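Possible regression after last week's pipeline update?

I re-ran a chain I had predicted before the update to compare outputs. Posting the input and the new output here so someone can diff against the archived version. Not blocking, just want to make sure nothing changed silently.
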Amino acid sequence: MQAQRILLILLSLLSETFSLQHRYVFYRSMVTIEDETPTRRVFGGDRMTLSNYPAVCALLDRFWNLKCSGSIISKNWVLTAAHCVSNKVALIKYNTIHLKSKEGSIATVLYLYRHPNFQVLEEDEGRGVDVTVLRNDVGLVRTKQTMTLNTELPMDPIAAMLLYAPYDMKNQEIEVLGFGRTDKSDSSLGEELYGVKLKLVGCDRSTWTFCMCGTSVGLSGGRGVCSGDSGGPMTYNGSQIGVTSMGPIECATRTTPGPTAISVFTSLHEYASLISHTIDDTENALKMTRVP
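New output (post-update):
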């Protein structure tokens, strides 16, 4: 009996060591050095078209620099990650796959919102700073102008959020979209729309609340999210069921994360009512908090 207990403890420690072999980071704070190879956004991904998910859009600052990705969920509202919401976000560009091209549409930002209980804790547990706690990473942007997609979504986005509960999704293949560039990108086009397919697995930490995690294990090569993807849509069967929260810190360098690297998403299933109430300004209901 004692030998069995020791074996179980050793297996538990081994499992924890394996699962926490990567550190994670929010990419909005990463800076690409001018003379270095541009930071990869989706590693192991491919260029996408708007047919993959027509509502995907980019959050830009007033100088037209990419801050995060997002998705249009109604005529005046963009869904993104809470950690993307800051007063630096000034513009939304949509109906395009190239941010510097003349194609596409622009809307200016009126208000910014984030979940009232959004929480992040970053700690150094001996391997460098890591995200140990992540809760309620959901935010909204309200635009001054009405936004009209060139291609309508087949289903109401908020209704789609309720279709798939995260606990039913293990081992399912999902697709993630975000704007960025790779070392092979044409710099004249600026950031482009990239996507990657991943398989959903258990997350490294139980302290990442209402999160879903994806990996390339079982698929070909290392794949995942990187900078520029934050707040972008994670889709399943053409419906958005999550927003991109973070990924492995290795993609901030020239190092390609290994096949066991995890990409982290916040599931939207638990937040559909909150998002709907914020948009509709429902009285006496929990709503997201407006960011000054």
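Follow-up from reviewer: compared with the archived run. The chain is about 10% helix and 35% strand. Marking as no regression found.
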